[in-house]
Amino acid sequence: MDHLAHVSNLRSSQSQTQISHLALDIGGSLIKLVYFCRYDDSCRDDGDELRSQNDSLCSKSDNNQPVLEGRLHFAKFETSKINDCLDFLRSMKLCLGGLFSTVKVISGSRYISSSFGLFTSSHDGTAPPSDKIFIKATGGGAYKFADLFKEKLGVSLDKEDEMECLVTGANFLLKAVHQEAFTYLDGQKEFVQIDPNDLYPYLLVNIGSGVSMIKVDGDGKFERVSGTSLGGGTFWGLGRLLTKCKNFDELLELSHQGNNRIVDMLVGDIYGGTDYAKIGLSSTTIASSFGKAISDSKELEDYQPEDVSRSLLRMISNNIGQISYLNALRFGLKRIFFAGFFIRGHAYTMDTISVAVNFWSKGEAKAMFLRHEGFLGALGAFMSYEKQCLDGLMVHKMQQKFPISASSAGDNIYCSLSSNSDENGSIECTVYGT
Ligand SMILES: Nc1ncnc2c1ncn2[C@@H]1O[C@H](COP(=O)(O)OP(=O)(O)OP(=O)(O)O)[C@@H](O)[C@H]1O
Ligand SMILES: CC(C)(CO)[C@@H](O)C(=O)NCCC(=O)O
To answer: Which Gene3D superfamilies is this protein grouped with (predicted)?
Structure first.
């Protein structure tokens, strides 16, 4: 999985990077991590040396704010393998030295942030005891695994609301990150230019294990208007049982080669090969997902796993596309952003969702996708450090490194993908402390 690459990346580049901020989204299927690595020339094990080094790292902006320059990185783990995640976090400590000791970025006498543990409830800048180290975390696992994190790593999870984090993450990406949103239709990917001043309202559809549909009206202004339990967990769970695939990507890959018409009952199968034009259904429209499996005297082993996988993927994607459209219609929303790791940047998934939205809305509504699709919640949790206001001393801001347009000025959270962003989608940015 990706995290292995991250571990080796981190190891090979430990002399360049130092992790200073981290947030988690612990979902039903996957754990997502967002962490900020400062650019740095050297990295030493000794806490005091790190501290003085941090002093020098913590340069000042024009208006005397402490500035940390670096990149946001992303990683994910299967929730069922949470120990791998804990090992990864531990290995960061080993690689980078003293991350669990509360290395601080000091500005004058003010305590701006601690490294990795990120913040403590200490107001006076003195070294906080480890039982006061917090990591921002969201998702159900922030509750479920709180004791485990405490026991294994000695850190507390500071819980942030999952829906709020999804919305914060989406707003941040859509407003601040260049070439984040795109449409996908007929194999064509097209980036969408988002005007940050004309973003709302929109429907956010997060397809994780289950699916949440959220009407977003502004920063922190949202309502979860619908959801469905037929989501990514359904695709992966049923797919695993039906195809014996060993991992999600294998199942997805398999769907690529399959033909759903072997498994699905089409309008043409019912209407003797003709369209049902009067109600707008062509002969190739799926009349009943998996419908052929009832009429055939075939058993599961008589079907090709790739056909089953393709049919399943279409069933789930179509259904989500249709429910999303109905909710967009309900509230008069024209833009629907789809996120969550079910999508996985997979062409056929995106195409199916886009076709469903296009078909049901008669071309009125548009399905859009996000490059950092699976990390909205973790980003939202990360951004919540910003609102952490301990005596008003610990507010962090993300500052855009390369301004996208003059019109985006005036908002205080900026960031952009640098032109040479790596394949993991890391984001170059600057964290400001005020
Ligand atoms: N490597 C993988 N292992 C398992 N599932 C994966 C993988 N990659 C993509 N997926 C898909 O992504 C889904 C999980 O997406 P995501 O991480 O956004 O949700 P979650 O936070 O785990 O779920 P929820 O928000 O419902 O708790 C899985 O159900 C599966 O369909
Ligand atoms: C329960 C959550 C919010 C956990 O992330 C998600 O899996 C979900 O939205 N499930 C769908 C539940 C429903 O609305 O039917």
So the answer is: 3.30.420.40, 3.30.420.510
Among the bound ligands, the one closest to the CA of 207: 1
Amino acid present at 373: E
pLDDT by residue (tens digit) across 262-296? 999 999 999 999 999 999 999 999 999 999 999 77
How high is the ipTM of this complex? 0.99
| pTM reported for the whole predicted model | 0.83
- Residue 419's Cβ-side half-sphere holds a number of Cα atoms within 13 Å equal to 3
Q: Which of 209, 254, 337 to mutate to test the pocket of ligand 1 (most atoms within 8 A of CB)?
A: 209
Residue 247 Cα distances to 118, 235, 237, 306, 412, angstroms: 34, 12, 10, 14, 41
3-state secondary structure of 396: strand
Pocket residues: Cβ below 6 A from ligand 1: 27-30, 78, 139-140, 208-210, 232-233, 235-236, 248, 340-342, 344, 374
Nearest CA to ligand 1 atom 4: 248
Check if the beta carbon of residue 201 is closer than 8 Å to that of residue 215. yes
Residues in a beta bridge with 421: none
